[in-house]
Specification:
295 residues, MetI-like fold, 13 helices
Amino acid sequence: MRLDKDKILSILLVMPSILAVMIFVYGFILWSGRVSLSQWKGLLPNYEWAGLQNYINLFNDPRFHIDVRNTFIFTVLFVFGSLILGLMLAVMLDQGLRGESFFRTVFLFPMAISYIVTGVVWRWLMNPAQGERMSGFNILFERLGLDFLINQWHTTPGWGIAFIAVPAIWQMSGYVMALYLGGLRSIPEPLREAARVDGATELKIYFHVILPLLRPITLSAMIILGHISLKVFDLIVAIAGKQVALDVPAVYMWQTTFDGYFFNRGASIGILLLLSVAVLVIPYLRYSLRSEAEL
């Protein structure tokens, strides 16, 4: 009887959270899905059935093609840039560097800053203006005599989105560093000693012993970073505003929904973003649950 009472109290305790998640997460997902299949244009709701026409129109939209291209470029550079830089920082700190706690704090600090603040700062650093209005990196390059490095940054035709990945890498590489550093510190020292006894150099130890053991951490970091890159919005808006050349699905969704009042198209973009995130997250969750079950 006591056990049943504890179970009931436990269920009642978590019930408000369960109801909130069901309503404000899954309920709104279902509602957005319904809107994406409707003809709702304008401020007044219109749930007249449109089927998949909104999705068909979206895939035929040249602007959405630009969004997909920009997202791909940003994701590849952001994910691999953060992984490589984070791993390098973790390996450096793993060498018993003096003042490690200070450097660890410095590397992690950018993660505590919002993307809006990061965007405002990097908008000045990557100011493409020339002449008297030159500032940020360009004026630094000019005074150092490195004029060949002066460029248009995010206003570069075709590849401006690539420079948007730079501040994102700066912000998240510290987080990746913390993940890798925890993994490096969990590797038993006898494994390294055994490799040294067999004649392996430090470089070979990292490539053939340590990095294979860090694969689960690399997978987790890739999922997290990929999830962030697919939803990027505030960083781009803070740096460059709402430019079609730097457009991504999240920016397009905001403009088409709240500026153009095409709620059906905005909901369609939102559902596609949800599905793209699910493609990353669901296989990872299955892999994690399977690994836990095997243990």
